[in-house]
Amino acid sequence: MNVIEAIARWCCSQPDFSTTARRKAREAITDTLACLYAGQDDFSSRAVRAASESYFTPQARCRLAGGGRAPAAIAAMVNGTAAHAIDYDDNFAPGMSHASAVLVPALLAVADDIHASGEQLVKAYLIGLQAQAFVGSGVAPSHYTAGWHGTSTVGCIGSAAGVAWLMGLDQAGIARALSNAVSFASGTKGQFGTPIKPLHAGWAARNAVDAANFARQHMQGRIDILDAPQGFLEMFGGLTPPGWNIPAILGTHFHVIETTGVMPKRHPCCGSTHMIIDALDDLRAQHDFSDDDVLTVDTLVGIANLRNLAYPLPVNEMQARFSMQYCVDTWLRNGSLSVADFTPARVAELTEPARLARISLRCYTPEQEAETPPGDRLTHEVTLTLRDGRTLQAGRKLAKGSNSEPFSDADRLRKFTDCCTTMSNASDLFRQLNRLEEQEDLGFLAPLLGESLRDGAQG
């Protein structure tokens, strides 16, 4: 048995998931839909919509961010781009990816097409997420440090399994979908800070749908392509990929969403800034200081994180999301970061070179990273030098939102409403999403997708 066959077998052998796993899946889907709504007017989303308009048709079932309908693969691409557009969507360490920004739009497009229920959507999400974790386990972390964007590589492949399951494919069909998706895997981190990065998520969502559609027609490549010569491991694995443990895949009983989890974001910017921002929150809770008190800020992160943050002096909102200097300076001004801090006008207003110059960004050496024990994480550290001579320091190994420090219901609602400020019934929709598995159809999601409830009703 090869890796793809093992993953496909696992996907077809799950009669049910725990109450905890289902709740966490509902929360992740809710978070992603809020990010999708908030990102629908971003330049990247508008550009992808405009480029895809020739595919739009009122006869299609699949709804689009910003309104309109299109075939499933196009809807997945448009909505996936919107879900990742403002970089507020969750992180998923096992896949080195923004797992849900690929998985939820891909599943939602197919769910619209087949009139799936909320319960089916939740289960398909859990299957696709675990498949992403399985794929990622063979190449993490060297795949990511080599420069691949796991969202559009691992995310695409694993999501294809969830989509194939939702389409009703059997074990062999899911295996075909996984194999097909390997040929679609693409996207490098060199595109971070550009409008192409959100498109990576949209393209991966489209590719997941296409891979499953081809599998439904019995199109397939090599079923051993993950670990075959010139396959995914050899070509994409990086310097030291661990490879896959097939018995461990087959013996997985606790879902990854329970053991590791997806990490919703508290801040609408690159996750490589988040432990620093959260450490600043920790310092503020312990010490009395203001923006005017701060002379310099020194930040220490991992090598891959530093490479992600390539814009010390951003010139637009996309670059600002990948600028440690902008994010820290904005936090110092406001005590928090919000969606409104990453608009063209706001970035132009706040980007003051003299203020940003007081914030430095460093990374660990390769030797220091190599000394990190297996299973441990690097500490991201922030050091404030204050005008009164005090030095304040804090560090974090995990950002808020992890399984060890999860969002409260109030945190989740606060983020949802921050994303949905233009929606009059956001709180009501949030409560309905908390009962997602009770929904017989998904027409109630219409306000998130630019339609009235009447227009969005399915039938």
Automatic annotation (TrEMBL):
Residue ranges of domain MmgE/PrpD C-terminal in the record: 267-425
Q: Which Gene Ontology MF annotations are present?
A: lyase activity
Q: Give start and end of each MmgE/PrpD N-terminal domain.
A: 7-238
Q: Which InterPro entries match?
A: MmgE/PrpD_sf, MmgE/PrpD_sf_1, MmgE/PrpD_sf_2, MmgE_PrpD, MmgE_PrpD_C, MmgE_PrpD_N
Which family, according to the similarity comment?
Belongs to the PrpD family.
| Name this polypeptide is given | MmgE/PrpD family protein
